[in-house]
Amino acid sequence: MDFALRDMGFDPSMIGALHDMFDFMDETTEQKPQHPSRTYIRDTKAMKATPADVIEYPNVYQFLVDMPGLKPDQVKVHLEDENVLVVSGERKREKEKEGIKYLKMERRFGKLLKKFVLPENANTDGISAAFQDGVLVVKVEKRPPPEPKKPKVIEVKLGGGESSTTGGGGVEATEGGGQQVQDGVPSEVKTD
User: Fold this and answer.
1) Domain boundaries, the chain
2) Name one GO cellular component term (predicted).
3) 27-77 pLDDT per residue, tens
4) Are 42 and 34 spatial neighbours (Cβ–Cβ below 8 Å)?
5) What is the model's pLDDT at position 90?
6) 17 CB contacts (<8 Å, ≥6 apart)?
7) What percent of the chain has pLDDT over 70?
């Protein structure tokens, strides 16, 4: 319900007021639903506002994240839960100087954040990052594909030690009554 209200343009404080006004109850626990925390809301807005591209090459995944106005020491790259690449930084507003006023302020300030779930073949030990001209480039190497398993060939032997190359399900009889092989299991054959 909260997501639908947010999509309609309601801010989180208005959603909270609507919940309180209508006293929505959770059907299973008979308690009021938990409102998202400010940190969650801030991180969600930061992830939506941080543009990024993901490119797959034959041997590497490349993540390009726009982080204008930041210096390399203000950018953080780390892994969460062993397979989530997290890129973050914060651009702070310049302090207003005395006698100067802004007539228009359109540039974005605040937290920049992007999270990427890495594919299974990503090598988390082979991650490198470079920052230049406001663009962070993170490269994650791919693991080589696993070798396909070759089928194991099992030799089928007859009771007398002779080998046979008949396929499963076949019937082979020896001369003079010896053994018969049915589905790979030898059995005695009586002849008159």
Assistant:
1) 38-93+107-142
2) cytoplasm
3) 444 555 677 787 777 777 777 778 899 999 999 999 999 988 888 888 999
4) no
5) 86
6) none
7) 66
Name the token pair of 107.
Answer: 């540039």
DSSP 70-103: --GGGEEEEEETTTEEEEEEEEPPPPPPTT---S
- pLDDT tens digits, 96-128: 788 888 788 777 778 888 999 999 999 989 999
All residues at 6 or more sequence positions from 187 whose CB lies less than 8 Å from its CB, including other chains: 179, 180, 181
Virtual CA dihedral for 167, 168, 170, 171, nearest 10 degrees? 110
Class of domain 38-93+107-142: mainly beta
| pLDDT above 80 (res 17) | no
Q: Is 151 helix (H, G, I), strand (E, B) or coil?
A: coil
